[in-house]
Amino acid sequence: TRGVMSCISPRAPRSISVLPNYANRVPDLIDTSSHCMRVLVSDTGYRTHTDTADGETFMIKSRQDTKQITLKIEDDKTGRIKTIKEDIDIKVVAHWSAKYARRTKRERERTLIKANTLISNPAAYNRATHYGAARYVKNITIDSDTGEILTESGKVAMLDNELIAAEAALDGYYVIITSETDMTDEDIVKAYRELWRIEDSFKITKSLIKLRPMYVSTKEHIKAHFLICYIGLVIMRLMQHATDFNISPEAIVGELKKMVGVHLADNWWRFSHRTDISDELCRVTGIDLTRKNMRLKEIKSVLAQINKK
């Protein structure tokens, strides 16, 4: 997503933002009052569509708006972080999906099972393990020191049926806020659904590419480290794209680690690791490492081909 895109769930309003070049998150941009919720669930203004990919029904509507946001940016001259306020044009897209409604209902039902267990046996869970179940239970508190879930004095723990009913009425609805005001509503929803790819790339850089921990401290070295990791991610994605994403990042890294040469004697080296995956990687990159034994001159020739690419 080129600009700012945030998704806000009516159940637990918060924004999840992709902000290039900005250090802070966009604040919540949607009024979560009862009036706004009535507007959200009202059929007025919604257009009904059918997803051509899976045949699922969804409804969508939008409005243009403006919002003042606070940005933290680095001063080019001093290098200090400064705070500025800026008014931006935004587009607010309300969306309802039958698939999302079913998923939300299933997730809540699983949580309610834990909530009922919590009511009958509060000691079964604590602050770290209730996983959202406590929010559906009235008349309980969580000890700030121990994290224990305790029943309030003189009261009986019970399900908060009003909260459950209120959330059920909003199953399937969510709001997307974006600075890409020229995009169509449908393209905005499609772009948001693709944000999982960004999260997946973050996961890969942290785990496989070892973005952290960083064993450097200066600003220049930190930037260089990030750049190297980013280049590694790009190369990995290009390999995946060339293989129609049939090879996972884990498999690519695993194969590359094993594709090493062992010195035999004189100018001869042996590359004993060869699999269908390694052959495919050689094919899509145009680098021939399929021969078991190679002279040093031949290896240098392969490296020269890599430099030309």
Rg (C-alpha, Å): 27 Å
Q: What is the average of the pLDDT values?
A: 82
Write out the strand line-up for the largest beta sheet, numbering strands in chain order. 2-1-10-5-4-3
Shape: extended
Q: Portion of residues in helices?
A: 25-40%
How many extended strands? 13
Beta-strand percentage range: 15-25%
**Uncertain residue ranges:** 11-33
Going by helix content, strand content and strand pairing, the class is alpha+beta
**Could you spell the SSE succession in H and E letters?**
EEHEEEHEEEEHEHHHHEEHEH
For the biggest sheet, the summary is:
6 strands, antiparallel
What attributes characterize this protein structure?
13 strands; six-stranded antiparallel sheet
In short:
The chain contains nine helices and 13 strands. The protein is of the alpha+beta class and 309 residues long.
